[in-house]
Here is the input.
Amino acid sequence: MVVFKSHVHLIDVFSIETMKGFESLSSKHSLMILEDRKFVDIGNTVQQQYYGGALRISEFADIVNVSILGGEGIIEVLSRVVGQSRFPIKRSKGIHPPCRHDFEGKLGNRLLYVAVPRAGKASE
Here is the structure.
C-alpha cells in the first residue's frame, strides 16, 4: 500500500470534484490519502475542521496528522467523531501523531518524543 500525502488547504479551488478526484486516484492506484493538516486545536474545533467546513477532510482522507501540543485528548476527540453512528463514512480511518518531522529542533521536542508514543498507546 502506498500513501499519498496531501495539503488540501494549499489548493486554490477545492471542491467536491477535487474530493472525487482523490477518491478516483486512491481507487485506481490502491493509495491511502494522508491529509497533512496537523490538527492541533481544541476538541470541538478539531472535530469541525475534520468533519465539516469547506474542506470536509473526513470524506476523502484515510489518515490525518495530529499534533499533541494541545494535549493527548485530540486523539480521543477524533476517534469519537469517527465512532459516532451518524458519521457517514464507514471505511477505516487512521490518525498519525508524528513526533519527529513536525518539531525537529523546536522547543519541547524532547517532551514530544515521550508524549507522542504514550498518547498512541493510550488510544489503542
